[in-house]
Amino acid sequence: MIYIFVFLFFALPTTLFATSPFKHNFFNQVLQKYVNDNGLVRYGALAQDRSLLDAYIDSLANYSPTSHPDRFPETDDSLAYWINAYNAFVLRGVIDAYPIASVKDAFLFSGFFNRQKFIAGGLELTLDYIEDRIIRPEFRDPRIHFAVNCGARSCPQLEKRAYTGNNLDSMLERSLERFARDPKHVQLQGRRLTLSKIVDWYGKDFIDWFPSGRANPEDKPPIVNYLLPYLPPATTSQILQSEDIELDYFDYDWTLNEAIEKGRPQTPADSP
Questions:
Q1: Above pLDDT 70, what percent of the chain?
Q2: What ranges do the domains of the chain cover?
Q3: Which of 92-106, 107-121, 223-237, 257-271 has the lowest mean pLDDT?
């Protein structure tokens, strides 16, 4: 009888024992419920009904591409995890400190990004560590700068659905195009092209990514060439016809990216 059991056990299809991929369903529900079409967050409502976000944060604490690589079979699965983790940790940090005027107020001495720690796959990590030591060097895709959301008004828009391995590329492309067509982030006046401070802070990522064989029209700066395919056609044409483009950068607005509900005025945050 024992021999029959052992035979049957080893004869079972290996798919029965395959590890299921990591799921982002809880986070998807949070985003759809509390993020509006402009990427602003109803933090007050989320703070009062946080069970879904807390459940997702718990799953992040237990699993990561580092601790359980078998649950992230493709590179895109891993990158989707880290983008979602960053965005979810920001939401968690904000509602833990809510109400606040700026994400910088979410931790003592403006340490929200480099001191406050969150757990991913059993490891305590800061937001800066996730972005600068994992996402940027391991995946080397500048489009992530238009996907991670720091909780400020000047951040790229927060998506209303979670990233997954299957939708990662299309969502990153959409985030980049939306960023490039938003006058809050990209604005051309005459020869002066004013850009989000993000592309100044992380300029090296765009230079390193730029394919050496790709056309460099009119010797424009790498970040301009990077954005050209995504800009409105009229803006692209004007840039290509300009002999000399002057780059400038918007001041960064750290005011909380909050969807203000009726009866609650928003307090502007101090500039950094």
A1: 85
A2: 22-175+253-265, 186-249
A3: 257-271
Tell me: the pLDDT tens digits for 217-241? 556 788 998 999 999 999 999 998 8
Q: Which two tokens stand for residue 82?
A: 């880290």
